[in-house]
Amino acid sequence: MTMPLEHVPWRVQGSIYVTAFFFGPLQTIATMAAALFVAGLVSFQLPFLIAFILASRQVLTVCLSVYGGALMDSFGSRRVIIAFGLLGAASAMAYPFLPSAFGAVWGGDNGGDPALWFIVALVLVQMISGYAEGNCWIGTQALVSQALRGHPVYAGRMIFIARLGGILGPLLMGPAWDLWGSWGGFGVLSLWIACGAAAAIFIPRQLGAMAQAAQTATEDTTSGTAGENPSATAAPKARGTGFGQTLRLLLIPAVALVIMLTVLRQAGSGIHTSFYVIWLDKEIGLSGTLIGGLLATANVASALSALSTGFCARHFPAHWLLIVTIGMAILGTAIVPTLGSVYVLLMMAICIRGLGQGVNLPMMITVLAQNVPLGLQGRITALRVAFNRGGGALVPLAAGAIAEVVGIGNSFYIIGAAGFIMLAVLAVWVARSPAFGPAP
């Protein structure tokens, strides 16, 4: 059962959807560029170093995203998105300068280890770029809750448009990388982020005032009275902007479930945004164009499944829908090494992942919107993304450590199996918990 669909003016919807078109697929596009960059400069025989560099992108997002969410609750997501969009566009263009500035040589497989200061500089750029990108996406998701009430129909539409961007972005990135190297790839990335910041300018300014009013209402009244959602009545009262106050929202069972599933989701996504591209590039030998084609295919499947979110929410319990679709996303990544270089099979696997991802993200947004007051939507979105990126940092590191011992291909299997085991344990808890009702 879902909340009734309230009409939101198309000008408001359209501005949010266009912003999502650019910032929704930004992590995929940015990590594709970063992975190709690292693969060309760091030896394939150093998987843990590769994992460390790629995982560093998530550090600032994990540590500071809740404070960015508090800024969105206080001043409106629009301003925060524009500011971090400009920072992200500038930081993307720092990558191509690094090899010449620190004497790094392309062709890491030839055995040369990159210089220490190059690694330090690359990690710093990764952290800044990742934090800017993360806050842009947090702000876009928060707008779905603040302006679109987190309704599954609106959330599904937003993810559909975001996945359309995910089709175009990799298709632009791949050929640009093949033709002009890192300058072309990161040039496309920088322009992409700048377009997202420009789109955010058209988000109505009054949404910022609405966010401030909701924040004031949340602080001045008992928890759950802000907004119109009765299911948010169990939410703790907001005092301050720190992690401690935001973490109290985990006392709500539905919120706790979404956060745990967010982490488990990384059993597929953490590999997908790190070793997946490197595996395709170095082990199979696919070009940037073909890799971009696979990522675009995933977004086609994800876009189509996102449109079914409203239907699925009406006919299936949200918690079981999340568990099943996250299992699909993990499966679509874990089986990749078994498929060899058969492009059609690789495409089928990534479609399985895409179908799951297209439903589980809008459902997460909807569940949080239904269970948390309006004035806390920026912070709860930031909290979810912080756990998401935390898992996104730990999974590549774990995969890198495993790959040092048993190889990169086997790390896909081991991480996938661990994800399924933890997902099964979580499913048992959900089935037995009275907070979620009877199992299907």
- Quote the CATH topology: Growth Hormone, Chain: A
Q: What spatial form do the alpha-carbon principal axes imply?
A: globular
How far apart lie the N and C ends? 14 Å
Task: Please provide the ordered H/E string of secondary-structure elements.
Answer: HHHHHHHHHHHHHHHHHHH
What structural class is derived from the secondary structure elements?
A: mainly alpha
Question: What percent of residues adopt helix (DSSP H or I)?
Answer: over 70%
User: How many β-strand stretches?
Assistant: 0
Characterize the largest beta sheet: strand count, sense, and whether it forms a barrel: none
Number of domains: 1
Q: What's the mean pLDDT score?
A: 84
- Unreliable sequence segments: 221-234
CATH fourth-tier homologous superfamily: MFS general substrate transporter like domains
What can you tell me about this protein's structure?
The chain has 440 residues and is mainly alpha-helical. It has a single domain (10-436), classed as MFS general substrate transporter like domains (Growth Hormone, Chain: A). Helices cover 76% and strands 0% of the residues. It is built from 19 helices and no strands. It has helices spanning 10-23, 26-41, 47-55, 59-75, 77-92, 98-102, 116-147, 152-200, 206-220, 243-247, 253-264, 266-272, 275-284, 288-306, 309-315, 318-334, 343-371, 377-406, 408-432. Helix 7 runs antiparallel to helix 18 (377-406), helix 11 (253-264) runs antiparallel to helix 19 and helix 12 crosses helix 18. The longest helix is centred in the middle third of the chain and has 49 residues, at 152-200. It is globular. Mean pLDDT is 84; it is low at 221-234.
